């Protein structure tokens, strides 16, 4: 059967044209939603792109993943209950069974993306991580100094290998994250004292993430089609990872701890400059190369820079800072819209503020859903507060619109 | 993405027109990139951040700012929003009306949020309505509904529904209802919301609002029923009611060809049935393996159901 033959296409288990056909189906649906194609016409074109490989997206994919997680979790639980050994060789065998099982399931049932294969891969990775951690700890006779590092490095390599084989972007992102963690713990593993190792680890993570980003960008520049699309995700992830490593204040604000206070002044100035440079570089690169994912990642990083700027400079934060941020965001949005509209054919350098065929409708639906969740959540909170309160009218007082009685 | 060669092939087979070929070629080449979604997101976040900052500033500095300054500032925001909307709004229509300007929907939303902040401040500072302050919520919800329908704004509609839910919950909780009784309230409210949406749609009044009503209403009903299975004494009745509600949600999904509603129905039923199964197995003192076996089987069945759901929704 032609569909079952292993193709040279990126080393994937499916034939070369499957990715293009599946991506094409998504494009056709979005063009249909945008009103560029008729219903019957879309059905005819979809039939032309039909492939026997199974694929799910959106809510269905999420549901498949949830049920696969529960099922695989229960299977592993049953294995444990029936007396599974936690010796590292047994765990390695489990990892091999899950990883091999993934390949088998994909080929047998022609699964391109249905979530089950992702969950099986994650389970295999989990068993592999446990096997490496236990084996290295055993070799070290319980000291556990290199166990963490070995686990991170080997799992990152395996995860990236799985990404290359099956194209799951999540696995690529996991590999990047594990690479960052390995860099953070490397100084401590090398025996550098607790005074210096966290700071050195942070800088090493920054350098590692920046290198990964650079390498991925180079790779992306030489890629086309599906590979370029996948690498686009990884580049955006690497940009955010580099930014996270640079913005030490973000960690302090989020977790209440971090190295920001103990950093040398020159280092802190460098990191502060990077929090501005990285979003700017990412945004510029994304705009020039017309890569929306990179633009989004740079936008998120820029927002984080605005949010942490005062903490970096040691300035006092005021409640009206959020108002100023709101005015800046709104102002930028309105100005961009105005500027783009005044270009020839309402376009500048290929960018337009008018509706496209992409996920515009989904973005608007997401905003309505967020508003609904915000207001309904507020309603539930206010009602519960009132219902559980003994004192009359002591909670949930509100003027509507999300403003609570207690402000 | 569809390749240029495939598009040309479709054109040769006359499956697409020359105009469509030009448009789609432009799209796949990336020569025209829309920032519509990004600019909308930025403006929406801007409005949310601004109102959050406004609320925080008033909360922390109202003594220093003075009531007059606060009311003037809020009045200016609400007044400017109202004037802008009155000037720019298209005439009322029962069907969908596109926004007259890019910022229009967000200015209506900003005005409504500022109104909410102002009303809360007014009531907390002066306690004008005393024990009847919750009527503000009903009035606010009414106003938001009016504005949502007048300006065709789904963001404001979601505010109206949220405010109505708050009033509904508070009004009943003031009568001394406890948390389990609130479950019934949630079901009743969900049904009312769906009925409101259905009535509005039947009257041909902003039919595109129906999905917002159904989304909120169905989630409230289904979540309350699942909650009932976990806690109420007649949990089997709740399970039967959940099965019926999920059946209706599936019928709605089929009618609207919405995979999302079908997925919600399956997920809620799976959770409800699992809660009941765990309840029964706990009662029977079943071993851990039995629980795990249940979840393994049930998730397999559910996985298969999702697959069947897709086929069923696509079937003619």
What value does the average pLDDT of chain B take?
89
Largest chain interface and its two residue counts? Answer: A-B, 106 and 110 residues
Q: What general outline of chain A do the C-alpha atoms trace?
A: globular
Taking strands numbered 1, 2, ... along the chain, how are they ordered across the largest sheet of chain A?
A: 1-2
Largest sheet of chain A: 2 strands, parallel
The DSSP helix count of chain A reads 14
Class of secondary structure makeup of chain A = mainly alpha
Largest sheet of chain B: none
Radius of gyration of chain B, rounded? 25 Å
Briefly summarize what is shown.
The complex is a heterodimer of chains A (407) and B (316). Chain A has 407 residues and is mainly alpha-helical. Chain A has helices at residues 18-33, 39-48, 58-81, 88-109, 116-139, 147-166, 169-189, 197-221, 225-246, 248-255, 265-289, 292-313, 321-341, 360-388; strands spanning 54-55, 111-113, 347-348, 351-352, 398-400, 403-404.
Verbal overview:
The complex is a heterodimer of chains A (about 400) and B (about 325). With about 400 residues, chain A is mostly helical. Chain A is about 70% helix and about 5% strand. Chain A has helices spanning about 20-35, 40-50, 60-80, 90-110, 115-140, 145-165, 170-190, 195-220, 225-245, 250-255, 265-290, 290-315, 320-340, 360-390; strands at about 55, 110-115, 345-350, 350, 400, 405. In chain A, the strands form 3 sheets. In chain A, strands 1-2 form a two-stranded parallel sheet. In chain A, a hairpin with a 2-residue loop joins strand 5 (about 400) and strand 6 (about 405). The model of chain A is unreliable at about 1-10, about 390-400 and about 400-405 (pLDDT under 50). The longest helix of chain B has 30 residues, at about 35-65. The radius of gyration of chain B is 25 Å and the shape is flat. Classes of the chains: A mainly alpha (about 400), B mainly alpha (about 325).
List keywords for this structure.
heterodimer; A: mainly alpha; two-stranded antiparallel ribbon; 14 helices; 71% helix; disordered N terminus; B: 316 residues; mainly alpha
């Amino acid at each position: 059967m032609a569909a079952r033959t292993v193709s040279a296409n990126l080393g994937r288990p499916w034939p070369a044209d499957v990715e293009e056909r599946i991506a094409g189906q998504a494009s056709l649906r979005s063009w249909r939603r945008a009103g560029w194609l008729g219903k019957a016409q879309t059905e005819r074109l979809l039939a032309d792109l039909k492939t026997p490989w199974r694929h799910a997206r959106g809510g269905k994919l999420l549901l498949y993943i949830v049920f696969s997680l529960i099922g695989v979790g229960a299977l592993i639980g049953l294995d444990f209950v029936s007396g599974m050994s936690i010796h590292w060789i047994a765990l390695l065998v489990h990892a091999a069974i899950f990883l091999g099982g993934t390949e088998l399931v994909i080929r047998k049932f022609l699964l391109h993306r249905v979530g089950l294969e992702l969950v099986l891969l994650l389970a295999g990775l989990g068993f592999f991580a446990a096997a490496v951690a236990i084996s290295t700890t055993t070799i070290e006779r319980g000291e556990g100094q290199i166990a963490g590092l070995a686990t991170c490095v080997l799992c990152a390599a395996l995860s990236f290998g799985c990404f290359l084989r099956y194209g799951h972007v999540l696995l690529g992102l996991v590999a990047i994250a594990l690479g960052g963690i390995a860099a953070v713990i490397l100084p401590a593993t090398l025996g550098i004292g607790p005074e210096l190792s966290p700071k050195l680890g942070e800088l090493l993570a920054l350098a590692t993430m920046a290198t990964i980003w650079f390498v991925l960008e180079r790779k992306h520049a030489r890629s086309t089609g599906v590979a370029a699309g996948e690498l686009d995700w990884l580049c955006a992830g690497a940009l955010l990872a580099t930014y996270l490593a640079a913005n030490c204040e973000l960690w302090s604000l989020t977790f209440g701890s971090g190295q920001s206070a103990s950093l040398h002044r020159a280092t802190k100035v460098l990191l502060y400059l990077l929090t501005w440079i990285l979003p700017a570089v990412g945004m510029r690169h994304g705009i020039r190369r017309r890569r929306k994912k990179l633009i989004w990642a740079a936008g998120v990083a820029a927002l984080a820079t605005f949010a942490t700027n005062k903490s970096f400079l040691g300035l006092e934060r005021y409640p009206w800072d959020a108002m100023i941020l709101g005015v800046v965001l709104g102002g930028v949005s309105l100005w961009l819209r105005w500027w783009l509209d005044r270009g020839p054919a309402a376009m500048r350098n290929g960018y337009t503020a008018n509706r496209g065929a992409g996920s515009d409708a989904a973005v608007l639906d997401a905003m309505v859903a967020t508003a609904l969740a915000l207001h309904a959540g507020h309603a539930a909170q206010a009602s519960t507060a009132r219902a559980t309160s003994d004192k009359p009218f002591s909670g949930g007082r509100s003027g509507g619109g999300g403003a609570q009685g207690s402000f | 993405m569809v390749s240029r060669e495939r598009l040309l092939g479709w054109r040769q087979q006359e499956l697409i027109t020359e105009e469509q070929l030009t448009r789609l070629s432009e799209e796949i080449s990336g020569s025209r990139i829309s920032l519509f979604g990004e600019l909308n997101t930025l403006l929406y976040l801007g409005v949310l951040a601004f109102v959050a900052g406004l609320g925080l500033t008033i909360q922390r500095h109202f003594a220093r700012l003075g009531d007059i300054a606060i009311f003037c500032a809020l009045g200016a925001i609400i007044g400017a929003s109202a004037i802008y909307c009155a000037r720019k709004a298209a005439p009322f229509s029962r069907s969908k009306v596109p926004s007259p300007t890019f910022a229009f929907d967000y200015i209506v939303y900003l005005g409504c949020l500022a109104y909410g902040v102002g009303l809360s401040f007014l009531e907390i500072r002066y306690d004008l309505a005393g024990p009847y302050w919750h009527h503000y919520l009903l009035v606010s919800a009414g106003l938001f509904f009016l504005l949502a329908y007048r300006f065709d704004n789904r963001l404001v509609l979601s505010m109206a529904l949220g405010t109505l839910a708050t009033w509904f919950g508070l009004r009943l909780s003031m009568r001394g209802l406890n948390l389990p009784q609130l479950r019934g309230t949630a079901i009743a409210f969900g049904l009312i919301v769906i009925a409101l949406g259905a009535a509005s749609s039947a009257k041909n009044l902003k039919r595109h609002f129906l999905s917002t009503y159904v989304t909120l209403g169905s989630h409230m009903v289904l979540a309350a029923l699942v909650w009932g299975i976990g806690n109420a004494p007649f949990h089997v009745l709740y399970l039967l009611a959940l099965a019926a509600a999920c059946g209706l949600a599936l019928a709605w999904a089929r009618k609207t060809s919405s995979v999302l509603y079908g997925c919600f129905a399956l997920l809620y039923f799976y959770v409800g049935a699992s809660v009941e199964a765990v309840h029964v197995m706990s009662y029977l003192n079943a071993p851990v393996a039995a629980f795990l076996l249940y979840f393994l089987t049930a998730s397999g069945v559910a996985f298969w159901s999702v697959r069947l759901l897709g086929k069923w929704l696509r079937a003619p």
